[in-house]
Amino acid sequence: MTAFRPDGEGSLQVHQDPTVRIEEGALVIAVYGKGGIGKSTTSSNLSAAFSKLGKRVLQIGCDPKHDSTFTLTRRMVPTVIDILETVDFHTEELRPEDYVFEGFNGVMCVESGGPPAGTGCGGYVTGQTVKLLKEHHLLEDTDVVIFDVLGDVVCGGFAAPLQHAHYCLIVTANDFDSIFAMNRIVQAINAKAKNYKVRLGGVIANRSEDTDQIDRFNVRTGLRTMAHFKAVDAIRRSRLKKCTIFEMEDESDEVIAVQQEYLNLAQRLLDDVEPLSAEPLKDREIFDLLGYD
Predict the structure, then answer these.
(1) pLDDT (tens digit, 9 = 90+) per residue, 240-273?
(2) Is residue 207 annotated as involved in ligand binding?
(3) Any known ligand binding at 206?
(4) Is the pTM of this model over 0.85?
(5) 244 is in an annotated binding site
(6) Domain 27-289 annotated CATH 3.30.460.10
(7) What is the CA 156 to chain-centroid distance, rounded?
(8) What gap in Å lies between CA 155 and CA 134, rounded to an integer?
(9) Taking the chain, what is the end-to-end CA distance rounded to the nearest angstrom?
(10) Catalytic positions, please?
C-alpha cells in the first residue's frame, strides 16, 4: 500500500509498495518524453485509436497539472489526490465513479494529480492510483492501460509507472533537446528493466517534418520509430477544441492520414511489438552525434 504522510512543512512523500503491480491481461504502455513535446496529445489520440479498434481503454494522467485527458473528457476532471483529500485519505470510502471518468468512445480516464507546486514529489500518487483501480476491479475488464507521464525521468517518483508497464514509448521531436531527454529516458527504462517487466517499445516522432536526427540516434542506440506525426495544424486545433483528432470535423487528407497513423500504431502495439535492447549514449556522444557538418 502506498503510504501518505506529512513530511516537513506540509509536504507529502511517497513510499512505493513493490507488490502493487498490474498483473491482469491488459497491455500496459507508459508514454514518456521531454516536457511540452506532446505526450498528452499523443496518449489521448492513441487511447482513442485503441477504442476505435474495439478495445476497452484506461488512460492514467501522471502529472500534477492534470491535463492528460481533457481532450477525451472535454473537461478538467478531479484528480485522485483531490478526491483522497476530501475523505482524509481513507481509500475505503471511495467509489470508482468518484475518480474514474468516461471519455470519448468509452475511454476511461483517471488523473492522478499531485501536491501543490514546491511541496512534495510529483510522482508519488501513481502507486495509490493503481492500488485503487485494483481494489475496485477496474483493471480486470480493461484491454489497454496508458500511463501519460510528466516530462523527463528525473527521479524515482516519475519513473514509478515503469514498474507497471510492458512497453515504454518515447515521444520526441527531430531536435537536440528532445533527443537528449530521450537518451535519459532510455537510461531509466534500462534500470527498471533489471527488476521489472518493462521494455522499450519504440519512438514516436512528433511535430517534425523530418526525422534525420532521430534516425541517426536510433541507429546508434538500437531504437526504432513506431510512428511519425508531422506538425499538422489540425492537431493543435483539436487541443483548443478540447477533443481528439478523431472528432475533428475537418476531413482533409491530412487529418485522415493522422487518424490512420494512430490506428496503425495502436494495431502494431496490439500485434505484440518485439521489445528493444537499446544502449544509451554518454552526453558527449550525443553532442558529437547530432547536428550538421
Answers:
(1) 999 999 999 888 899 999 999 999 999 999 997 8
(2) yes
(3) yes
(4) yes
(5) no
(6) no
(7) 16
(8) 25
(9) 53
(10) 34, 39, 65, 152
